[in-house]
Fold this sequence. Notes:
- The chain is an alpha+beta fold.
- The chain has helices spanning about 5-20, 25-35, 40-50, 55-80, 90-110, 120-130, 135-150, 160-180, 185-220, 220-230, 270-280, 320-335, and strands at about 260-265, 265-270, 285-290, 295, 340-350, 350-360, 370-375.
- The protein folds into 3 domains: about 5-80; about 90-235, nmb1532 protein domain like (Four Helix Bundle (Hemerythrin (Met), subunit A)); about 280-385, PAS domain (Beta-Lactamase), CATH 3.30.450.
- About 55% of the residues lie in helices and about 10% in strands.
- A 5-stranded antiparallel beta sheet has the order 4-3-7-6-5, with helices on one face.
Amino acid sequence: MDFDHKRTEAITNYVRGLLNDEDGKIIYLENREHLERINPEEAFRVFHQLLEENYSVDALLEVLDKAINVFHLSLENYKAEENQDLDVPFLNVLIRENQGFKDEIQKMKTILREKDPIKNKMVLKDHLKTCGQIEHHYLKKENILFPYLEKKHPHFKGVSIMWALHDSVRSLYKETLKSFESEQCTAADLNVKIGRLIFAWMGLVHKEEYILFPTAKDHFSLEEWSLMADQMFDYNFAFMDPPKYESKNAAQFDEENNDLVIQSQTGTLTAKQAFMIFNHLPVDLTYVDEKGRVVFFNKAKERFFPRSKAVIGRDVSDCHPPKSLDKVTAIVEEFKANKRDHVSFWIQLKEKKILIQYFALRDGQNNYRGVLEVSQDITDLQDLEGEKRLLDF
């Protein structure tokens, strides 16, 4: 994919002008020649540059759709010309999920065009719940595609903007579902709420199809795409059955037949035994080293927060949505400064109460060696009363 420094600089000036409330028509005409020739790679570089200039993700989201609308024709032309013959199963899955998503949205639009959508309220709600499958699509992007992009080149840090869009539509989706429970929700209210949600959803689809996917196609080898495909089965699939797929990658590590022996003051374990213990603990474990890189996670039977191998080596600052990044940074800094040893949070995850704890790890000389994140389902523990002794078994 061509990359033109002069064009990227001009387009960055245009978006910067939008951020600074300059006259949109004037800055468009000043940069029109370049705006009409932008390609997906340059779009990524523009927003990365603005993030580097300390414009916030929230500020960029304010002007994002306006900028993308200006870029649209050029991006559409590029999409039409790109190579469609590359066989990449992981990307094909993401594209198929989008198509199923658009089909489901079209069904909702048909109902909304009727004179009184309230009479079809329950049918509409069912379609809306079906659309919720798109969450599986977002998780595969966040936990597989985004880490690979971030490792490929610094300017792909701009995927944090798309992650923020994921969170935005997640909130809109929950809010819209709640409106169905209200008896005061009128046909007009329903049209407005669902219309706003569909607009946000389709905006994300377009940004994927016109910017994210074409750029990713140009940057990864078939081997890298194959590694991503191996990991997609750690997640559910949206609007489709799991595809038939045969891995082309030999196992890189065999936990079952590892002969490494770990000796300590409290005993001796084989690597196989150690991994078995980690994976049978009723908690999610993730270890981030002192350099801020994810180096290990366990494979608990039912993880609350999805993880895939793509996360290994990822900077912890890229593992959290932009809205919570400042909090994560503050916690790590307090751990490094020896001001805290642990912090705890708890959230409601559907019917489960999840306790999330961060522990500062320190060596024998009290040097900071990273953070251990431990997440546990404490729903049943909250109901414990009295005692239940071993003899009561």
